[in-house]
User: Fold these one by one.
Assistant:
Number 1:
Amino acid sequence: MTTLSVAIGQHLLLAYSGFLISAVIGITGGVAAVRISPLKTILLVSSSLLQAIPAFTLVALIVPFLGIGFIPALVVIVAATLLPVIRNTIIGLSSIDPILIEGATGLGMTWNQILIKVRFPLGTRPIFSGLRLSSIVANAVAIMTVFIGSGGLGTIILEGLVRFHTPGILAGVLPAIGIALSTDLVLSYLEKKAYPL
Amino acid sequence: MNLTAPAIEQLWTIHDITDQTMVHLTLFFSALIIVLILGLALGIAAGMNKRWGGILIQILNVIEMIPDIALLLLLIPITGIGAVPTIVAAVLYSLLPIVRNTSIGIISIRPELIENGIALGMTEKDMLLRIRLPLALPLIAGGIRTAVIYTMGIVTLGGIIGARGLGAVLQAGITRNNMTVILIAGLWIGILAICMDLFAAGGERILIWKYGDKT
């Protein structure tokens, strides 16, 4: 029997360490892809295809390769949340009016300066919509990974499901929804802070 | 792990994968047809009536923030387990992209086209059917593509609440610790999901080419 607070703690640790790893790798990867254009096409096409694979399939497919437990669960969360971040970062950073990029080049700005002062501020919206989608997916996948022994809120939900005990299911589902909604609020606040206009 | 052809064939038969694929696709298409009809109707209504449309899209936005598995499980007390909650959850979750894209599509028509329609003496209904909807088709197709991905995801999850289908095969593989079953079912679902997405993407391309704004 896992207590609710322990389960919530495990859930938060699992979902959000996965989310943070994805955010860091995804944004770095997006920047690299905008810099190196063949990489951009490859990443855009492959991320669009792989995004179609249901998350529960990824949860299952990790078992033959990494076994069960916290680390495989974390890897699945990163795999499931990385694509929207990379994709939206590439879209956000590269769909800038070319006149602005030319203008900035004309002012003598280097590629890196343009990246930080022009591309990132103007790409805030798409980048954040990728992050928000990812945070919700991370939250959902962190529940599914109970089937591969990750612990967390999924444990409570699974107990409720097996015993067909509605309050038990709700005790696990409602905190997960609360966490998803509050993360989304935090991200939308950060988005407003980051968007210059 | 035993990945020889006879072993795979045997597991395929033991786990009824052909049968489960049919169940999976039936669930998928039932949900998709419902979401298409409902989504288009609500999307057109939302585009015609901005106030209620705004409220509807807000509600759908909140549903979208609920993790998909949580939405699925929340329905159990109301609908029981099995195919019904799976289809309901898939519909609820996939409505937003279609409703939003349809309403945006029929609202954001270039004003001169609407003026042309009025000058030709078209009624609101004519304009909806002959100008607004055709021009909105590429955007609607984009929404349908997202809905296809969401629906496939939830139908797969339905396996854990007794809806049968390929998700159930996956779960059996995990609980019996049978790596071969996991690999076969997992790759098979992946292939199916990517094919459905490619189909939807192809449809989207054709509609963009036929009806897309070429100016």
Number 2:
Amino acid sequence: MLNLPVLRWGKPYESLEVDEVVHFSTGEPIAKVSQANGGIIQRDLRKAQAARDCLCRIPIRELIARVQQAADLYEHGTLPLGDGTQTPAEFVHQQSASTGLPEHMCRANMTKNSFVLRHMDQILDCLTRGLDLDILTRGYGQEGRGVLVSYQAQSPVLGAVLPSNSPGVHTLWLPAIPLQLGLVLKPGPQEPWTPFRMVAAFVAAGVPSEVFALYPGGPEAGAAVLSGVPRAMIFGGQPTVDQYRGNPRVQAHGPGFSKILLGDDVVDRWEDYVDVMAESVHINSGRGCINCSGIWASRHTQEIAQALAERLGPIDVLPPTDPAAGLAAFTVPGVAKAVWGMIEADLQTPGVTDMTGPYGPRLVEQPRCAYLRPMIVHSDSPEPEVTRREYMFPFATVVRCPQEQFLAKIGPTLVCTAITRNRSLIRQLTDAVHIDRLNIGPLPTTKLNWLQPHEGNIIDFLFRSRAYQAADEFLGEAP
Amino acid sequence: MNPADGVIADDLASRHLAAREQLDAHTVEMMGWHFHESTACPFWLEKKSTLKFDPLRDIRGFEDLKKFPLFEDDWLRGGPVRRWVPQALADKPTYVFETGGTTGIPKSRVVIDDFRIDYELFSDTLPDQYFPRGANWLMLGPSGPRRLRLAVEHLAQYRGGICFCIDLDPRWVIKLIKLGWMEHLNAYKKHCIDQAITILTAGHDIRCMFATPKLLEALALGLEERDTSIPAVGITGIFSGGTEFTPQWTRYAVEELLGGPPEVGGVYMTPTYGNTLMGLACSRPVTAAEKYKITYYAPQPRAVVEVVSFDDPLQVVDYGATGRVKLTTLTREFFVPGFLERDEGERERPYLTYPWDGISGVRPYHGVAAQTTVGVY
């Protein structure tokens, strides 16, 4: 069993408070994780500027090269972790064991993270729209139009309060290091694996360890990170998103309510898009904010729901080591049952039909965990509450709604796949400010192009473009 | 076992026995006081008529207190408050202290001299080296209708000093937390710390203080922002308390806020556990060698802490086992025959200074922890 310490600017610190991470189905201990108290974090964060100063001494191009090296180490290397080491296979096994995610999905998330690391140069080039990256280091520079530009870092470090249930989100904080910002991470209680392994890979690739702080801990630790870091991300439910809405210091990531809209011009050929719809609902066990939770069309909705139910309804629980396993376990006691209770209540609404009912019980309870098998629900109007639901398993509502009401009724949508060639509808969707990522055509909601921003451009979150003027004789003379 | 250990064990056993006999005798004496027509308070006289036993006749020792139903703290909500004043003390100047009250009616406890007695007993446990006689104190805790403020002030006066206080309304703090107004919360905390720093840096020769863990931490950070520290402003003795006083927090405070253990940093910090109903339980010395383990002992025979089964509050758990905190208060001013506190912990063995059961690892009771706001100030 591994002992994972708190990491205080690269220095391991063994706390007297330790949390045990256990296997979700056997209860077997996998790791003991030191817990940071809030005061430690508050005090450490006073030294955050040292992390940025340290990284600014290394050119961004050099940091990108080290990050690319870290990609290989993360994906293939045996890395030091706490008081032991970890191979990639052990990482996959441990992450699956504590989160309930099937091993092949853990492996896929690992590949996704290393892909982002490996393509960091392109990603930064796209997110900065080709900016000379030395301008980020220096704070100002010439971009070629004869005008001085300036990008001012808004924080010496990026903080992140990370989730336990979705190992895919880690791609979002990876650009911090090549942008010369330190990292202050509060791992999810059941998923310390990615942050610890990623930091180990960075350090093995030559990124100085003193730019990393890892603070496993309770809610107090998360609050300390959010209050002490000028720019931080948090992952949580809708209440978390609501709490931080409008707070420029915090980027809150919550439910996505991602959707597929079938335009009237294509809906009569809905069978052509069943694969895209099924993949969007089911991939990664439906856990992501980019998984589709609503499919909207003006007609054929019963047939669409029926076809998806036939495709997804029979999917059953398999052991996490099975390459065919399609479902992740709910590892927190009582959660799956509570979710099922909410769904049962929604199903009482007139006009709402459970299309997966004929494929057997959805709630599968095991001694130490539970599963929810995929659910497709049909709603004959956009009014029932179920049309605004998103859950941490493959769950989607097929909603009958006139096309002209789509925009008014769909609500906030992280990823919208609009399958239509209707120029007017595309124009309206392009202008709709409650849609974040927009896919036109049969692209799964889960298919992300890493060269595009996600929930806001991280460059805009971390740097501020501002005026910067200099008298001619001083231009270029600044240290 | 070496011979010295044997002597200590014998000594502890005899002290434990003597303490038990004293507790039994004290219990009987308190029954004579709290249930006699001439001395008892109206509340217990009325209650006596509903009991299926006679406390004056049937309570022959501490164990017999199990015959009483558990004390319900809701009985303390609302008036008339005089029903709690023993008739034999009715002509004495009386204080009322409150707990709770963020919403609804707070619980009230009447006190005449108990807080003075409790804190004088506690004073005897403080090392003069770090809590010098005659030194002035800072009370960095709740103000208003709270026992703690007057008690700390009395402690300072009893030791020959003068106590400075700040304004701190914990009910407002709890409201801010429930509303999620974290900016207001932080501003209010800063307001409290600013008051403390103003006093500490105003030349009043303050050497000792009471502070809750949260406020002590905030004070240390506030002083660091001004390029000073708790030891540097002259503090040498700190008395603190609360369920947030965990071993890890204590280690962090000692190592990072106080400059090291007392012999290195020059600051001695002692945790305590208590409330308005019970009084003050003291801790064994907390050391790095014992991984900052904190074990509390109630001020027997005036108050008793038991660690009881979660399922059966009449059953004390085994040593080392986890259970819920059950308090019993046996003073002339107040009688509480077994109250289930909102905390849990592990039962600890007696030791020479306190030859009766103790409790370690005190934390919010898991059954109510989710609904309770702790350590707000």
